[in-house]
Amino acid sequence: MDRTAKVERALRAAAPHELLDVVDAAMRRHYDAVGVQLRMADYGVRSLQLVEPVLLTTDPVPIHGSPQGKAFVAPDPVVTRDRSADTVTAHVAVSVRGDRVGVLSVTVPESAAAPALLPELTQLSEALGHEIMVAERDTDLYVLARRAARLTLAAEMQWQLLPGRSCRRPEFALGAHLEPAYAIFGDNFDWSTSADHLTVAVTNGMGEGIDAALLSNLAVNAMRNARRAGLGLADQAFLADQAVYAQYRGAAYVSMLLMRFELESGRVEVVEAGSPRVWRMREGKVEALEFDAQLPLGMFEDTPFVAEHFQVDPGDRLLFASDGVYDTASQGGERYGEHTLGRSLNANRLLPAAQVPRAILRELGDYRGVTPLDDDALVLCLDWYGREYGGPAGDAQEQGVRRRNNFAQ
């Protein structure tokens, strides 16, 4: 059994709260490591928090401006050398099916830094990511390590409802983010993939605090229940509408944008019911996609919903945004969604989909200036590659970026 297999086997046998201890011991035994650290990205994706016996004892490192942060966003591991100690430290992103959750840093003597080290650490980091995902069913350790501050109860509910920050397959890549990360309440996103389809939902429950979080939780779980029952898109919206109306009798409602993508053809079915909107970047041109406006979920009893269709082509980038993004005004009174959002999409065209939402939300903060955010802000970015490339997700992503870049030049 090779050494990577031995470490992976030890990980699978470890207690949920002991994953880092097992990795540390295994890396020292099989790789002659002299130091092992695991850092988790905080909810705002601004810092990396050390997983340690007493959390927050060690200062976090920023994602922007640190070797660990560079490894978190870069496609490849980052290596630093300490010539005085004659050691090499490899910083490797920890991910779960493309969703980056943290960084594993392993320090070894210079003499042990063989060419096989980085590929093996990349493989082990992916295994660690999967084990962390499973372990979170039984321990709070890794969830707590993500907190740079205390979450509001509404934010706690919303983060537990989310599927992750990003997802990647050969046909597409997507990423999403919410602000304010530690005090969100009504905005939410959801996605699900199968052999033939990708379903994406963006929702915005009215109100504030716990009321908005409870409303969004009801709507999202009602749509999941209908989807898992095998119902079509319009029926998913209809059953979620019934669930919300039955509970609130029209006193509260949920805005929603629901899409289902055929992975083979790129044909998209869509139901728009309320405020979330979508923009498409194609051949260097950004345009808002307009659909028939339908009533939000739960406004009236037995509201019928009708699905529409459109087509995505390889190289297309779709950006979903809540009204907390496109309705945000500058100090001069111009709405962000009128012109600035298109410029931002073009400016960030070379970033992978997983990084675009955070980049746009940072720019939104600069655009808003000193004015505080008075609503949730949600951004979801979807890059469509299709099946015509026939290669792995990385190859498809490179060609998609090339298409966008060629048209923008």
Automatic annotation (TrEMBL):
**In what residue span(s) does the PPM-type phosphatase domain sit?**
169-384
Q: Which UniProt keywords apply?
A: Hydrolase
Q: One GO MF term, please?
A: phosphatase activity
Entry's SUPFAM superfamilies?
Answer: PP2C-like
**Does the UniProt entry include the keyword Lipoprotein?**
no
Q: Which SMART domains match?
A: PP2C_SIG
User: Could you identify this protein by its name?
Assistant: Phosphatase
Q: What is the lineage of its organism?
A: Bacteria, Bacillati, Actinomycetota, Actinomycetes, Kitasatosporales
